[in-house]
Amino acid sequence: MRQLTALDALFLHAESATTAAHVAGVAILDPAGAPGGAVTRAALVELLRERLHLAPALSLRLADVPFGLDHPYWAEVPGLDVADHVHEAALPLPGDEAQLAEAIARIHERRLDRARPLWEMHLIQGLSGGRAALYAKVHHCAIDGVSGAETLAVLLDLTPERRVVDPPAAPAATTAPGPVAMLAAALTRSVAHPARALRSLGRMAADLDAIPVAAALPGARTVAAATRMIRGDHRELPETPSLSAPRTPFNGPISAGRRFSYGSIPLADVKRVAGAFGLSVNDVVMTLCASALRSWLREHGCLPDRPLIAAVPVAVRTASARDVVGNQLSVMITPMPTDLAAPLDRLQVMGRTMRAAKRRFAGSPATWLGELSSMLPAAVTSRATSTLFRLASIVLPPVNLIVSNVPGPRRPLYLCGARVLAYHPMSALTDLSGGVNITCFSYDGSLDFGILACPDRVEDVWRLMGHLREAMDELTELAGPRPAREAVPA
Fold first, then answer.
1. In whole angstroms, what is the distance from residue 209 CA to residue 57 CA?
2. Pick from 403, 402, 440: which is nearest to 422 by CA?
3. At a CB cut-off of 8 Å and minimum separation 6, what does 89 contact?
């Protein structure tokens, strides 16, 4: 019996007429090595049937508590036919990147059917150059970025030949309690909720200076320091910078529409810049995003005179929790130096900012996201989350956007015999987190970006991808010429 955590339920209840809270990814495939030179829906369905037991999240559906008095439970679907979740389509000629992005954006707009396991796959044929694409989405209440990558990985192989997978053992089925038991548990939890909420409030107080909006309250730093001292934590933590998000076109209520763009940047170039300036790959990624956002805002005449504020998800999943369905993540809130004109200044300031944020996180891992999710009773959360998100976006947005960097494999992988050329991740947009989301995934020598936007906020989403490439060109020029062994032949 597994019940959604408060954080899982937050992602579930964030959904509304304008918000679809699933995470997704687009794998670009070269089917030349696949049987018959093509990836077929039948082959994909067969693969899923063979390996479904390796991805627990795909065989579960939600079991709601009567009247929404508690968080839902997970229940296994006996005899699940994965074919019902696998779809196929073809792009019209010429099958270019813009057509693929448009098709994927339309699919990404649609919410998942909560009466069934919360996932879908769409095999898209007809991409130029004889390529195909696989778009897969899973609800955020079931997976986070890291577990999503692991879920995809169970379908992939290290060679074009499919590996042999052991058949499933016979574990106890995941079942939900009956309605009476659910209501009894909900009553027990509701009685204990005030005490749990007070404990959560006490734990949040230690991070008050790192929580957006709350950090700007008078005395927030003093309260946080005093709370840590009372708890016996005498470590010196880096002082958090201002976390006040400026007003931008990215923020405000979003519509149900989506726009998507994608592209790749050589990981070797990113590593060369990182090495030249003594930074991490993630520091360079954050700088690229800051530079691209600055260029877009300047083009539209709305560049704020202070840094944007980004939420950066951080995986906290342990080895013992690898097979746990749901979210195991925290978040760092960090400024992005979009207010600095010089690329080198942005790079250096971003590096210092990220180092301080990481030291702060290591010294006091932020648990406030989960604690905040637990503050309101489940019955209130289920009804009020999406409304509260929309109100916050109008009154005082806590962040400008989410930027996420998910590490991936360094060698090529194969799906049904087809080589995976790139994997472009996609996340969710909400009123609270802003109308643009930038996610990247490192794979086989590339950083593969996926940029999702609300068209009411960012219509020309391909310009952001173009600005990312321009920002990479700026930084590689600053890093100097490639060493001879990396020189590109004429």
1. 35
2. 440
3. 103, 122, 123, 124, 125
CATH tag, 193-401+448-486: 3.30.559
Nearest CA among 31, 431, 438 for reference residue 261: 438
Helix (H) / strand (E) element for 422: namely strand 418-426
Q: Of 69, 75, 324, 61, which is closest to residue 177 (Cα–Cα)?
A: 75
Cα–Cα dist 78/346, whole Å? 54
Quote the pLDDT of residue 207: 79
Q: Selecting from 3.20.20.60, 1.10.150.20, 3.30.559.10, 2.60.120.260, what CATH number does the domain 2-179 have?
A: 3.30.559.10
Please tell me the pTM assigned to this model. 0.92
Q: What pLDDT was estimated at residue 488?
A: 46
Which is the catalytic residue, given 122, 140, 193, 424?
Answer: 140
Q: Is it the case that residue 363 has pLDDT exceeding 80?
A: no
Q: Is the pLDDT at 333 greater than 60, yes or no?
A: yes
210 neighbors 309 (Cβ within 8 angstroms): no
Is 140 labeled as catalytic in the residue annotation?
A: yes
